[in-house]
């Protein structure tokens, strides 16, 4: 199949946000006396928004934090991103090489999505083709954001290839009837997470952005 559109998730695919953001949240929880390992937290939080994580922490871990906690964490993450955030290795090179239409479709809100892409120099590769979760009714794992992106880009869903790093995103892409490649090369991916990605139902698994030159027509 010749894809008509390549859809990139942002966090953990284009940018190394996940290792920074999730460690920040784990550290903040520990400061409140809630001990949880980064691996355990990633299983709860990866690919999900704050309200969903908040609810899961309450239900599964009996951890209850004030809603202000998430606002404080987000402010701390902004500082950490300014200091440490970088693109995933090889992302700029693959975006320069890729001649097929491309866009970003993320579970993040518009402000954070545009800010982090701009901060790392990745935003110009996509221009206005950046779609955030606040544009649709339901976040991933619902297919809404992927279907919205395809519609805006004038592509048939069955002719789209999605690059995702989370089970939440893979589920959404499959529900949208899109081909999905699971990316396991970001810093936050553990061996356990790799195994989950391999068993996720994604059509391909890869760990190096350069591999896209072999598995995608340019």
Main pleated-sheet profile:
6 strands, parallel
**Annotation field: number of helices:** 10
Question: What is the helix/strand order?
Answer: EHHHHHEHEHEHEHEH
Shape: globular
Work out the helicity level: 40-55%
Structural class: alpha/beta
**CATH topology annotation of the largest domain:** Rossmann fold
Please tell me the overall pLDDT.
94
For the biggest β-sheet, the strand order reads 3-2-1-4-5-6
Summarize it.
With 218 residues, this protein is α/β, with parallel strands linked by helices.
Structure overview:
With 218 residues, this protein is an alpha/beta fold. It has two domains: 5-16 and 86-215, HAD superfamily/HAD-like (Rossmann fold, 3-Layer(aba) Sandwich); 18-84, Putative phosphatase, domain 2 (DNA polymerase, domain 1, Orthogonal Bundle), CATH 1.10.150.240. It contains ten helices and six strands. Helix 1 packs across helix 4 (68-84).
Spell out the key features of this protein.
218 residues, alpha/beta, Rossmann fold, DNA polymerase, domain 1, 2 domains, 46% helix, globular
Lay out the secondary structure.
Elements: E1 5-8, H1 17-31, H2 38-45, H3 50-61, H4 68-84, H5 91-97, E2 102-105, H6 110-119, E3 130-131, H7 144-153, E4 160-164, H8 167-175, E5 179-183, H9 191-198, E6 204-206, H10 212-215
Helix pairs in contact: 1-4
């Amino acid at each position: 199949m010749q894809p008509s559109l390549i859809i990139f998730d942002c966090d953990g695919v284009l940018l190394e946000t996940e290792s920074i953001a999730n460690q920040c949240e784990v550290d903040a929880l520990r400061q409140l006396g809630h001990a949880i390992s980064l691996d355990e937290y990633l299983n709860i939080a990866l690919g999900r928004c704050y309200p969903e994580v908040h609810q899961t922490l309450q239900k599964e871990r009996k951890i209850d934090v004030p809603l202000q906690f998430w606002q404080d964490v987000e402010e701390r993450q902004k500082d950490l991103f300014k200091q440490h955030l970088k693109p995933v290795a090889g992302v700029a090179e693959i975006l320069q090489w890729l001649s097929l239409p491309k866009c970003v479709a993320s579970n993040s809100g518009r402000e954070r999505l545009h800010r982090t892409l701009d901060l790392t120099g990745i935003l110009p590769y996509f221009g206005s083709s950046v779609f955030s979760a606040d544009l649709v009714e339901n976040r991933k794992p619902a297919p809404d954001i992927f279907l919205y992106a395809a519609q805006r880009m004038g592509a048939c869903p069955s002719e789209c290839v999605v690059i995702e790093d989370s089970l939440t995103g893979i589920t959404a892409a499959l529900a949208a009837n899109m081909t999905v490649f699971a990316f396991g090369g970001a810093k936050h991916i553990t061996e356990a997470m790799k195994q989950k990605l391999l068993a996720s139902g994604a059509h391909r698994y890869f760990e190096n952005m350069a591999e896209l030159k072999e598995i995608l027509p340019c």
